[in-house]
Structures are given as structure tokens and as C-alpha cells.
Amino acid sequence: MIEKGAAGTASGRERMLDAAESCLERFGLAKTTIEDVAQAAELSRATVYRQFGNRDGLLLGVAVRDAERTASEAELYLRRFDDVGSWIVEGMLFCLREIPKRPVLSQFLAPQEIGAASRLILTSERMFAIGAEILRPMFEPARREGLLQQDLDLDSLMEWVLRILMSYLAVPGPPSRTEEDLRRILRSLLLPAVLSK
Length: 197
Description:
mainly alpha
């Protein structure tokens, strides 16, 4: 076992997250244990517990890291749009397209895992912050220009958007629904609650 101070470093944390990601891909969300991750990272269980507190903390760490990667890709994709409505709708569509392709995040959306995964994700301040960081560059100027509902709060909007995303990811809807259909639904139902009239 290679231990020597690895837990307290950023590289030690990344090694644990890499090991957890590998275990999730190998064993699945329900069967991955702290023991599996410690063995894969060549660390003691105590070291993993010290870093993440418990299994939920470890799983959330993996989910957050994958969400941050997805968010970076979303930010690049969203540069082609120049209005807050498109950022919200196209950002959601990007996530609905890309998250199911992710080996780790997609496991959190498996029907047998969605309850526990939703609890983890929807109680994570970092998950909300990731979304807010994507929207903020468009959100703040839109607010100054009076394009948003007066009392709209970015944090509340992110919670609402994340809940909608989780719902669509968990239960995608009829197979005949196209992305264009979903774009129309989001524009007609979501944007009126966000944009000023």
C-alpha cells in the first residue's frame, strides 16, 4: 500500500476519485464500497474516510467532478448563443444529451439509483454552484438590462433547473419526442417564468 501523506494532497484526492470512478464503472453504484476504492487507490480505508467522511461523500465527489467536466464542455458549447433564454434552454438540452453518455453520471440516473442519487445531488451546494457559474456570465447582464423577472434569484433558478433536469433525465418521456419538441416545451413553459414580458 502506498500511503505516505497522499490523502492530504490534491493529487491524493484525485487518485481517490479516479479509483472511485474506476470502481463505479466496474461494480456499479450500488455495489461500490469504500473498501473497493481504498484498494484501487492503494490507500487505507481510514484515509478515504478522512478525505470524504463516508460513502455518500465519496460518491458525491465523483459526481461533482464529472459534473464540472460536463459544465466546462457546456460553457464552450454555449458560446455560440448570445441571449440568456438560449443559454438556459440550450444548456439544459446539452445536459440532457451529454449526461446519459457519461459512464459515471449516467449510473446516478439508473432507475434503481435515482432516489439516492437525487438526494445526493439535490442537497449538494456545489452542484447548484456549477450551474450558477455557467449561467452567471449571461444572467447578470440580462438582469441589468431588465430582461429577467424582477424577483428572479440565480440560486433559486438553478435549483429549479436542476430539478427539471433530474426529472427529464430520470424519466425521458415518450420515445417519439424529439430534441426540437423538448426545445419548444422548454421555451414555452420555462422561459416565461424567467424572462420579463
